[in-house]
Amino acid sequence: MSEVHAVRRTRLRDCCNAGGSAAALVSRPANVRYLAGAAPEGAVLLLGGTEDLLVCAGPPDDRSPQSRPDEALRVHIVPGYGGDAAVAAAGLAAAQGVDSLAVEEHHLTVTRHREIHSVAPRLRLAGIGCAVEQQRIVKDEEEISCLRIGAEIADQALGELLESILVGRTERHLALELERRLVDHGADGPAFPTSVATGPNAGRPGHRPTDRRVEEGDFLSVCLGATYRGYRCEIGRTFVIGTAPADWQIELYDLVFSAQRAGRESLVPGAACRDVDRAARHVLDSAGYAEALPMATGHGVGLEIDEDPQLTPAAMGKLDACVPVTVEPGVHLPGRGGVRIDDTLVVRPEADGGPELLTITTKELLAL
């Protein structure tokens, strides 16, 4: 991967040079990992005028291959205990003769900005914008492979849970069991806090598990994800507990399923991000659920669980091939519950079979 990381750094350097900066300071952890292969806690990446450095507050933990930085990068350890790597990196840039340093203004704190000025008063700081985040949108096949394995792990953990007895168990207990199963099957850990929602909580976006116990006739909504080699995927499903679903449950489920399918089918290279949202939203809006809809139909995934592109009504831009996104429409009815269906897919051209579905657990409305 050293060559891959070197190419990524070269792209960023070219972008900075075009903006008049000979060096760049990358401090956002996911961006550091993308460019350096690893992001030890507190580390920053300096694309210097004469040398690139991974500047760390302490020695990196190299017990895991995933935590080892690119071998082509020299690691600089900040002297003393508790030093700020970003401030130290700015001092190193100034020592290299750099007069302008591009920084991630959306991540650099005011305190850090002041401290950098104190150690390198002649160093002009310029904005790098979201240049690294924009690079990260389109994934290479190695990145997609990590997402695919993460999706397989999440599918496996969810499938095993569905084979167990659920009635009487709490949302919190089920969420903890799912996260344990993710690790047992090879995940670095959960991609985000696992959501298990039952009864009136079902279908609520971002629901944090409670001590409510699963009851017969409940809707059960589960949303989980696995992290594999730093890459995060997402899956969400809704089921009925212990009995044949009621007519209103079947009707609501079929509606959300239709909306999710419309969104999935819109994932083609060149499609406007807002059009994917519109395709799913239109199905639910037409059925009278406009007030119950979430703010977004989906979002990008990768080294973070919520990346660009955003699939929202006001989203700008178009989709490219090899962009992984979620499609996750849902409806929550206060006091009754609701339905969420969530998949991670990769945008592919029709010649390659269309969007690649990474999360394959059945979307049939099962009675568990």
Helix-strand layout with pairing:
Blueprint: H1 2-18, E1 23-26, H2 29-36, E2 44-47, E3 52-56, E4 74-77, H3 85-95, E5 100-103, H4 110-119, E6 124-127, H5 131-136, H6 141-162, H7 171-184, E7 189-190, E8 195-198, E9 219-224, E10 226-228, E11 231-232, E12 235-240, H8 247-265, H9 273-286, E13 298-300, E14 307-311, E15 324-327, E16 330-333, E17 337-340, E18 343-346, E19 356-357
Parallel strand pairs: 1-5, 3-4, 5-6
Antiparallel strand pairs: 1-2, 2-3, 7-10, 8-9, 9-12, 10-11, 13-14, 15-18, 16-17, 18-19
Structure description:
- With 368 residues, the chain is of the alpha+beta class.
- Helix content is 33%, strand content 20%.
- The chain is built from 9 helices and 19 strands.
- The chain has helices at 2-18, 29-36, 85-95, 110-119, 131-136, 141-162, 171-184, 247-265, 273-286, and strands spanning 23-26, 44-47, 52-56, 74-77, 100-103, 124-127, 189-190, 195-198, 219-224, 226-228, 231-232, 235-240, 298-300, 307-311, 324-327, 330-333, 337-340, 343-346, 356-357.
- Strands 4-3-2-1-5-6 form a 6-stranded mixed beta sheet, sandwiched between helices.
- The protein is elongated, with a radius of gyration of 23 Å.
- The model has no long low-confidence stretch (mean pLDDT 94).
